[in-house]
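#onboarding

Welcome to the new folks! Below is a worked example of what a typical request in this channel looks like: someone posts a single protein sequence, and someone else replies with the predicted structure as tokens. Don't worry about understanding the tokens yet, we'll cover that in week two.

Example request:
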Amino acid sequence: MALNYTSFKTDLANMIVVPSDDPNYETALPNIIDDAEQRIYRDLDLLSTIVRQTGLLTPSNRNFTLPTAGVRFVVVEQMNVITPAGTTTPDLGTRNPCLPVSKEYLDAVWPSSAGAGVPGEFAPISQQDWIFGAWPNAGYTVEVVGTIRPAPLSVSNPNTFLTDYLPDVFMSAALVYAAG
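Example response:
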């Protein structure tokens, strides 16, 4: 049976034998939810956590910041440069898959904007910042495919994939943390 925030909060309180309005329980509940979700998302490679987002490359600038429109990427699995330049919807253009390489490789092979073209390689600089080679010669759209951490269960987000499709696993993971 699927759970929502209210039913989860009540059921968990009943299982650990505390009143659901106990202040200490209410203080601990966000940490219980966070630990349970993190444990499940780490252990299971769920398709529901893989998304596609787009961002833009600036001509003659190899730097790219991951899009953050409602999501934050945990793992980047693929990047595609969309051609022709100016195409903002990936399905209306051609996806040009880019190869992941090291920053050092890009610095050695593409040290400047000389020879700018359609980028074919990328490397991380930080969790959010990436670089491309060749340096873009136009404003290309980049499609990023990767794993995100979905919004956690809360009063303002009363249903999640885990509570709808894996309520028993979610409750079990929450009980492991609560028992600690």
